[in-house]
Structure formats: structure tokens, C-alpha cells
Amino acid sequence: MTSAPTETPDIDKGQQADDTSKKDIKVGDTVKVNFSASKWATGEYILPSVKGQSYKVLETSGDRLLLDGVYSWINRKNAEIISTNDTVQFNGVFVLDSWQYELGNVYVRNNDMSIQPADWQNDIPASAVTLTDRYGVRLANRNGLGNNGKVEYFTLDGHYKVLERSDNAVKVLIDQEPVWLQASFAE
Questions:
Q1: For residue 30, what pLDDT is reported?
Q2: Angstrom distance (rounded) from CA 99 to CA 107
């Protein structure tokens, strides 16, 4: 007997947060005060009612984080990241260079956005793209032409969670799939 796939957005968010180093915590991220934390960065004792609770980061200063709600500074080592606020968007109209079919799913690839040599890690889930004309006007017929020799165009209309960054690349979550793209296209 097979069961239906289960949506787990909170677990997915937790995994993304786990992949973020404490040194990368920034303003807007949400952190939880560790149960093992005993003192604020200023030396005062942390109340038991604060431990295990989540707070948005208002400000950072070196190894310290200013938490919203309690307006106290905590050392980074005494906080666990719950969610990050690092997102990017991809503005513009892109050429749909090829359709990719992997494990029963459909993807699109833009060779300029891809990390070369392009492979499955650069493929964008087709469900996330909007097919357009070359000016970015949404097509009435949303069916792709499938590499029939005519140029196709698309836009990416969302804000995408950043999972990882490198010098020239950014790994983003698009429709629950990690995709590596050229950082120069990310805003």
C-alpha cells in the first residue's frame, strides 16, 4: 500500500535554516533562544520563560544579536536559527534554451543562467516559469512548444529562498527543488 506524498513546509524551512551557519545570521532572520543559555550577552540572567522561544533579529553586532520582543542582546552561540530571510528574484525575460525531462518531471534551462557545463542542477521546474513573448507579456496559450525550432521565452515571478552562495553562483529553492544559477541574474 502506498501513501500520498506529504507536504512538509515547516520541515523544509527547518532544513534550510539548518544549512545556514550562525555566523550568517542577519537582521530579519528568526532565532530560538537555546534552553542551555544562561546569560544575555550583557551578563544578566535569561528568564526560563524566554528559553526555547523564537524571536526576530533586529540588529547584529559581531557575535551578538538583538532580539525583538525582549530587546536584549544574546551571543550567537546561544541562539539557533529557525528561518532565514535571504531571498532573491530574477527579473527579466529569459530565452528558454531547452526543455529537460527528468524522472517524469519537466524542467526548463537557460544556458546563460546555468553554471557551465550545464546539467540537471541548473534546471528550473517548469511549474515555476511563466511562458511569455520576448517582451515579457504572458502568453494566452501556456503550453510550451518543446524545442520545435522556435524561440521561447519565460519569466520567473517569485522571490526564491537562497540555500547557498558562492563567488559566481547562487543555489535557490524553486518549487521545493534546489537550483544552481548564475548569481549575476539574482537581485
A1: 80
A2: 6
pTM of the model as a whole: 0.56
**Structural domain spans, the chain:** 9-83, 88-185
Q: Does domain 88-185 have CATH number 3.40.190.10?
A: no
Contacts of 62 (CB under 8 A, 6+ apart): none
Amino acid at 12: D
Q: Name the residue among 119, 118, 152 with its Cα closest to residue 134.
A: 152
Question: Left, alpha or beta for 147 (phi > 0: left; psi -120 to 50: alpha)?
Answer: left
Q: What integer is the mean pLDDT of 14-39?
A: 75
Q: Which residue has the cell 550577552?
A: 41
Q: In Å, how far are 1, 101, 120, 121, 144 from 104, measured between CA atoms?
A: 21, 6, 13, 16, 16
C-alpha cell at position 69: 520582543
